[in-house]
Amino acid sequence: MKVTIFGTGYVGLVQGAVLADVGHDVLCVDVDAAKVAALQAGRIPIHEPGLQPMVQANQAAGRLRFTTDAREGVTHGRLLFLAVGTPPDEDGSADLQHVLAVARTIATHMAAPKTIVNKSTVPVGTADQVADTVRTVLAGRGAQIAFEVVSNPEFLKEGAAVADCKRPDRIVIGTASAAAEAQLRELYAPFNRNHDRIVMMDVRSAELTKYAANAMLATKISFINEIAGLAERLGADIEAVRRGIGSDPRIGYSFIYPGAGYGGSCFPKDVKALIHTAQSTGFTPELLLAVERRNDAQRQTLGERIVAHYGGSLQGKTIAVWGLAFKPETDDMREAPSRYLLQALWAAGARVRAHDPAAMGEARRIFGERADLTLCESPADALQGAHALAIVTEWKIFRVPDFEQIAQRLRDRMIFDGRNLYDPAVVAGHGLGYVSIGRPGVSPPDKA
Ligand SMILES: NC(=O)c1ccc[n+]([C@@H]2O[C@H](COP(=O)([O-])OP(=O)(O)OC[C@H]3O[C@@H](n4cnc5c(N)ncnc54)[C@H](O)[C@@H]3O)[C@@H](O)[C@H]2O)c1
Predict the structure, then answer these.
(1) DSSP 149-203
(2) Which of 15, 84, 119, 329 to mutate to test the pocket of ligand 1 (most atoms within 8 A of CB)?
(3) What would be the CATH architecture of the domain defined by 202-448?
(4) pLDDT tens digits along 365-396
């Protein structure tokens, strides 16, 4: 099928590549000319496992193309996907300017019936707004062309986006149109062979489903972080508690890892937007407000622990930081807990030596040149001359570190672990002090 995707970010680019990979004819449109030029040259602007070879192979086969030409994009696809950003507005609501800009673009150029498919995460009622926008522009042109607006939210996880799009858990389609349903069933048929993954519903329910899914996951994280805070105060071990509750199939093990809080481009903004939506109806979302408050506090906790350990000031101290991306296997640092940690460390006077396996370029772009930040090529390099180590992202390569080397290099022999990667007894066995989340701390032995 001929498909156009507006927006070549984490969602649009991956979806475009995966659709092309099963034989669809995909044209991706973006307003960012530099990004499009890079993609045309086969350079992938984001870190996403498996994406580069898939983009390059489908480009070479002529099934995946990139352009800034919106008119060409509108003409190409029978299905027109919206995968543009919906960042938080100042009041926390989702900013729909990019979504509505694409709606106007489509209406300006369309000359034949189109199905507009919204993959961006948007508040309930956005499909109606998109339809109104298209209708208004068409009326201004004196054109009468049929179109549908379908909601088809995206559930991919950054870091596993290609795998998630190739084998989705579910494909949520919100539409009342039988014709649009048939088109989307045809589009997704290659991903729907093993069993029926398509969940049909009305448009507003599909829009709400995406927010409900992210709010539920954020709630699980804030819940376990709350219990971790309790465990610390009660002398319990949150890791034992986590295993104890996760074994109940009604609870499950996923998304109950205590840590430095959730971040990324989705959970913080989507919880905020859902709170805003709820409040705009006069309904107080008590639970979501608490989820957000707990996370705001949790993202500060690692920095607070380090500053408290050093009696309130980090003047003259250098802290090694492992992990900058908001989670492993991505370079995305939007709303990352590391950013809150770095600000806290700098505010207390520390210098930072940081390493991340994928997000170094992103960190350079965000922080620029600073005297109090050194971006290091390896985890071992980050330890050089540092007093203590802070771990913010649970990348695999941090899981089995060389504790002897850490003990030799860290001047104060302290690890502050925001992801509970290590067994406290093992760390203590190497003569290191260890502070983690929701578990009893270990003090370092006096230095010889
Ligand atoms: N990133 C995720 O993990 C994820 C997962 C599920 C859903 N979502 C949702 O999908 C949407 C996109 O997220 P993302 O992370 O891919 O965003 P992104 O910021 O990575 O990419 C958005 C792209 O849209 C482009 N764009 C903006 N205006 C445009 C226009 N008028 N025409 C064409 N292109 C335009 C931008 O240049 C950018 O390349 C958001 O609503 C997000 O909430 C994201």
Answers:
(1) EEE------TTSHHHHHHS-S-EEEE-S-HHHHHHHHHHHGGGSSSS--EEEE-H
(2) 84
(3) 3-Layer(aba) Sandwich (3.40)
(4) 999 999 999 999 999 999 999 999 999 999 99
